[in-house]
Amino acid sequence: MKLYADRPLRLANQVLGDVLVLVLVVLSVRLGLRARDQVAGMATPGREAEEAARSLAETMRGSARSVADAPVVGGTLSRPFRSLAGTSRDLAVTAQAYQDTVAEVATLTGVLVAGAPLLLLALWWLPRRVSWVVEASAAARLTRSGPGAADLLAVRALARQRLTTLARLDPWVVGGWKAGDPEATEQLARLELDALGLRPRGLR
């Protein structure tokens, strides 16, 4: 598999591009984690409210048990304490639900903040990078395949290169290729390899 070009300028551009993409991925993930943590911090009041409500509920239950043993009026006296304990439990449940909602929003925020640039990279950079690797790997294998490689690359150059590029060729090149001239064929093949940033190693 051919991951990088042979030509120094194309190689430098590819390495720089890959490094920049890696940096962007790391920054995107860190930014997403920071955004998640910022939103998650909004759950702090909910945690404090839950702790206070549960503590109050426990205190009210203890008070209800204490007065319940009082003769005659114990049951009546304990009723308000039990009611307050129930209300405190409801407040604790509400506070817990608030924390759960904040946690879900925080996770979603982190995914969106980190995922947006990563999605753009996946849609824009990745297909181009993979396409080059596939094309360059095939071309590199072809140059090592023996006789006929130059002919195939020459045909590919004529079919794929821009007209402005082909127009700069010496007029004899295409005519020579038609006539089976090895030098003309190799020049067209080199044009295709140059476009990929590859050296014509083993080209015949």
N/C terminus separation: 21 Å
Q: Return residue spans where pLDDT drops below 50 for at least 5 consecutive residues.
A: none
Give the integer mean of the pLDDT values. Answer: 85
Structural class: mainly alpha
Number of helices: 7
Strand composition percent: under 5%
Give an overview in words.
The structure is a single chain. The chain has 204 residues and is mainly α. It is built from seven helices and no strands. It has helices at residues 8-40, 44-68, 74-143, 149-160, 163-167, 171-178, 182-196. The longest helix has 70 residues, at 74-143. The protein is rod-shaped and about 120 Å long. The model has no long low-confidence stretch (mean pLDDT 85).
Secondary-structure map:
Elements: H1 8-40, H2 44-68, H3 74-143, H4 149-160, H5 163-167, H6 171-178, H7 182-196
List keywords for this structure.
mainly alpha; 204 residues; rod-shaped
